[in-house]
Amino acid sequence: MESIPLNDERALVHAAGRLFFKGDAEEATKQIRQAQAGFSRKKSEWERRVRQSEDDSARRRAMRELQQKKGYHNPIGTRISPAENQFRRLVEALDIHLTLEKRKARANREESSSSGSRVSVVRKLTALPAGFLEAFSAAEAERKEAIVKRFFDVEAELTVEIAGTDPKQKTAKFSPGLPKHRLYYLVDSGQIIRLRRVKIVNDVHYHNVETQQNEAMPLTLLLESVQAGGMWLLRPKADPVDVDHSPSE
Questions:
Q1: Is the link from the previous residue into 176 a cis peptide, with omega within 30 of 0?
Q2: Which of 1, 34, 3, 2 minimizes the C-alpha distance to 16?
Q3: pTM score of the predicted model
Q4: Which of 81, 123, 184, 245 has its CA 20 to 30 A from that of 167?
Q5: pLDDT tens digits for 170-211?
């Protein structure tokens, strides 16, 4: 009577389970596929031996022996198809898991690359051109505007609309909106600032480029400054024009 020895395949399935729970789904899938292939080979070999054994009993007209063999073989045969289906479903599930993991990894890479690109753009927009800080700090108040235009393009001149009469209920709307972590020039006060927070409630939190300090000012003071002289959104020039703008003697 013939049986199907599956010790190797059983070991492969157990190893695949351990690998999967360790996070190595790809290697686990290889182990399961190997076990599936081994099971298929042994099933085919078992069916061949069963046919030979039963045919031998039939030729010898050993009917009692033939019935005994069939009584032993048939239960094994009925368990083969469910085992094959389990292997098939397990492989399909692992393939789906691997596909989802690869999509997730690709999305993470793309997100990381996109995030890196955004960080790179922000750094370019907030980087001070070489020589600007020295020239700006040394310039007289009336010369600061010219120094700013020498090193930066004015991307937008911001305006502000104030609604409401009650000081506690006033709302301010900047046009265009305030991009995060950008450089601004307050014309009236002659300050270069970088906003640290986009959401402004009562105070404006910013980095003073000239003093290299994080500071804050009341929103009302910023609104007065914008209305008095203006507020410029700056974009560093790739190649600042090195021209001496000092008055000729």
A1: yes
A2: 34
A3: 0.47
A4: 184
A5: 677 888 888 777 889 999 888 899 888 767 777 888 888 888
